[in-house]
Input
Amino acid sequence: SPNLAGDNFPSLGGARGGGSASSNPYAAANAHAKKLRGAAAPSPSAFPSLSSSNFPAPPAAAKKKGSVSSAFAPKKPPPMDNVLQFPPPSTSKGSSDIKEGLNTVESLKQELGSANYKKLKSLTKAFASGSKEPERYVDEAASLFDRGVTDKAFWE
Output
């Protein structure tokens, strides 16, 4: 039967002092370590699956790229060709929305004339592509109307 006496469990605060077994709480661990050190180290043939021929060569150490200056370099904006496209207008409201839009375009063509309408169209394309500043777009678009920003057609 196992010895469950208090001095058999030194780490749990078993009896201290007195006998040689209780004077060194690590006596058993030290004895086991001596036993292991005394044994001959196993040969590589004892573990054939760990032979070096089964393992590929380690990869070459990758150089750490970058430096402090590259860490603070301005980041490139994301490409615009991966931006989600809006779906086409739904036809649930009917074609009245489309007709209203076409009527607005026709009234702009009549108000501005063919040449100024084409200028407005190209200004709008430039603004939509990001090559024209918003303030400049408004100023140039307003200049195409007779009374500028005070023209009622400008706001339609």
